[in-house]
Amino acid sequence: MLFLLTLMTAAGLGNAAALDKKQAASSSVVPQYFQTSPQIYPGPTKTAAIAPFLAQTNPAPIGTLYSPNQPLETAVPISGNTNNSNIFQLMGQLSSYFPNPVGFGVNEYALPPGANITTAHLLSRHGARYPTGDSSVSSFGSKIYNVTRNGTATWTGALSFLNTWSYTLGAEILVARGRQELFDSGVLFYYNYGHLYNTLTKLVSRTTTQDRMLKSAEYFMAGFFGFEWPQNVTLEPIIEQPYFNNSLAGYFQCNNSNNYRSTAGNNASLVWENIYLKNATQRLRALSGNYNWTVADSYNAQTLCPYETVAYGFSNWCSLFTYDEWQGFEYSIDLQFQGNDGFLSPTGRGVGIGFVEEFYARLQGHLYNLPPGSTNVNTTLDQMNNTFPLNQSLYMDFSHDTNIYSILTAFGLQQFSDKLSNSSITPNRNVTISHLTPFGARVVWEQITTPQPVKAQRPKNSNATMADFYNPGNRTSYIHMTISQRTVPLGFSYPECGQRDDGWCEMGAFMNILSGLLQQASCFGNYPAASWLNVTNGVPVTKRHLLGGGMGSGLERRRNSDMWYDL
Ligand SMILES: *[C@@H]1O[C@H](CO)[C@@H](O)[C@H](O)[C@H]1NC(C)=O
Ligand SMILES: *[C@@H]1O[C@H](CO)[C@@H](O)[C@H](O)[C@H]1NC(C)=O
Ligand SMILES: *[C@@H]1O[C@H](CO)[C@@H](O)[C@H](O)[C@H]1NC(C)=O
Ligand SMILES: *[C@@H]1O[C@H](CO)[C@@H](O)[C@H](O)[C@H]1NC(C)=O
Ligand SMILES: *[C@@H]1O[C@H](CO)[C@@H](O)[C@H](O)[C@H]1NC(C)=O
Ligand SMILES: *[C@@H]1O[C@H](CO)[C@@H](O)[C@H](O)[C@H]1NC(C)=O
Ligand SMILES: *[C@@H]1O[C@H](CO)[C@@H](O)[C@H](O)[C@H]1NC(C)=O
Ligand SMILES: *[C@@H]1O[C@H](CO)[C@@H](O)[C@H](O)[C@H]1NC(C)=O
Ligand SMILES: *[C@@H]1O[C@H](CO)[C@@H](O)[C@H](O)[C@H]1NC(C)=O
Ligand SMILES: *[C@@H]1O[C@H](CO)[C@@H](O)[C@H](O)[C@H]1NC(C)=O
Ligand SMILES: *[C@@H]1O[C@H](CO)[C@@H](O)[C@H](O)[C@H]1NC(C)=O
Ligand SMILES: *[C@@H]1O[C@H](CO)[C@@H](O)[C@H](O)[C@H]1NC(C)=O
């Protein structure tokens, strides 16, 4: 302070504004948990080896045959795509965000007259990204390059492009499309809920320290508030690293989610890949000369399509596969999530339960009393009201795909308990990952207050009056949940909520349900790996409580699907 005063005298009044800025910077010490710059624990941040040049590389500018991957317009026709459908919406968690086109069994309704939305809770995924540096697609890329150079492979026909191809993707961080997804999501969230923000207050919004997570939150805020968003929001990047508690990256403190006990999804996917990619593998092998093209190669090739598309705007890999094979690709990812992270995984609930506890605390308006270490929440942060405020009308949290899916599992949402077959596509399933956790995914819970209890059946005619909407009674509160902009009917999972047209659940009933979910987790302990369809409820068949003792063998390789598996 003395230093600044001296400086001010010397510099004269002309520089007062500049000095104000310096003073602010030097006198305010940001606690580590609010620090966004310089970044801590950002993870790898490798950018691509080449920059996009779509105007030059696009072999087929926009035509009439095909739905483009907006705003990336490539018009390569896909064999068997008779309905002019969009293959980019069949890519599981590698699809870019689109509103769920089929919903979850109920329609959407306008708020009844006199009802108010009082609070909105957002759980968002990050945007489109590069693959992980040591992913199977990068070693596939290296192998292709090697067998091309040393002459084992002679690429012909549709694979001719491989004669000059090499793997050039970056690692981990957001691509331009991903930045856009989060910006757009912030814009939409503003249109939907901007009114709930009190301009006199500053919100706390939680993300993780990983580069793409922090930046996704920042792009979202820029979309919602504009570039001045730091006046409106304090970001809280929770440390995402092994051995740190983090409900937005729960796998790090859920040992069994990182080992063989919860890889049933990968195993099921492998069985399925050998079925749905049999034809493609034969087709591509015939174009590979002496190179023995395998099913794993086909799967890696297919996986490169979405990654290269979001990085460069176009990928030669996409048109190698038929429409049916893209449906098979989506299903392989649905199997992975369901078996590794969902209802068919013994750690599905364990990874997601921390967020459910936090959500419960926010609805109650007071903290729960958890012994430290009992779940994957950071109890230090959750017990301070500047890092875990309970009085906001907007909550915005950012997380990862598998973590969000485990959170849905921990909520016990039975519509996502589909017992998927590993040998044929289960039709009309709710577990379609591109509809649940694509890039830029969003889960929203609204708290709604109504003047009287809302009838379970909504009036059908447009001239309905108040009496057509309400039963006699007092003010009532509800929860309304959406995923990808479509209502999740809570009565389907929780009979206490009733079978309602609007899918809402009365708050008292909902709180009772949540309180009953909090102990259902099994991250530790020795139980056998499940065979397919043995585990069906997100917890081990023989549920064990070994918290505080009998820890697992420590973290193995992290198995977030955002980190691709070796096949
Ligand atoms: C490709 O060749 C390089 C250099 O010889 C080697 O380091 C790398 O491991 C090879 N990649 C594969 C997948 O075999
Ligand atoms: C060519 O490269 C592949 C992949 O690195 C390797 O497995 C194979 O042995 C090599 N073949 C020759 C003839 O060098
Ligand atoms: C952000 O905060 C500033 C300063 O309080 C306020 O003027 C502005 O209206 C806020 N932005 C929005 C979008 O509410
Ligand atoms: C909780 O977060 C704080 C602030 O980042 C950190 O210092 C602490 O190590 C974290 N605790 C656990 C158990 O992860
Ligand atoms: C493979 O191709 C054959 C012949 O075209 C076809 O009958 C069969 O349905 C295809 N199988 C798959 C899994 O696509
Ligand atoms: C090609 O690879 C497949 C699967 O990895 C294997 O079963 C087959 O024997 C290989 N064929 C040749 C000719 O090496
Ligand atoms: C936050 O907690 C502190 C200490 O427990 C308390 O004094 C303060 O009133 C609380 N602030 C709010 C806004 O609840
Ligand atoms: C999907 O979930 C809804 C309830 O949300 C249910 O009515 C429907 O039967 C489910 N679909 C399938 C195929 O399970
Ligand atoms: C909805 O908000 C309006 C305006 O603030 C208020 O007058 C009304 O009482 C609220 N209704 C309910 C059911 O809380
Ligand atoms: C409301 O409209 C329906 C037709 O849509 C009509 O049958 C009904 O009589 C109308 N009711 C009232 C109260 O006007
Ligand atoms: C409405 O609230 C009043 C006062 O709290 C209570 O006496 C009454 O029983 C309530 N009515 C219903 C239908 O719950
Ligand atoms: C499921 O696992 C349990 C415990 O490992 C085992 O006893 C049971 O036989 C298995 N059931 C099926 C259908 O695989």
TrEMBL record:
<dbReference type="InterPro" id="IPR000560">
    <property type="entry name" value="His_Pase_clade-2"/>
</dbReference>
<dbReference type="GO" id="GO:0003993">
    <property type="term" value="F:acid phosphatase activity"/>
</dbReference>
<keyword id="KW-0732">Signal</keyword>
<dbReference type="InterPro" id="IPR029033">
    <property type="entry name" value="His_PPase_superfam"/>
</dbReference>
<feature type="signal peptide">
    <location>
        <begin position="1"/>
        <end position="16"/>
    </location>
</feature>
<dbReference type="InterPro" id="IPR033379">
    <property type="entry name" value="Acid_Pase_AS"/>
</dbReference>
<dbReference type="Pfam" id="PF00328">
    <property type="entry name" value="His_Phos_2"/>
</dbReference>
<protein>
    <recommendedName>
        <fullName>3-phytase</fullName>
        <ecNumber>3.1.3.8</ecNumber>
    </recommendedName>
</protein>
<keyword id="KW-0378">Hydrolase</keyword>
<comment type="similarity">
    <text>Belongs to the histidine acid phosphatase family.</text>
</comment>
<dbReference type="GO" id="GO:0016158">
    <property type="term" value="F:inositol hexakisphosphate 3-phosphatase activity"/>
</dbReference>
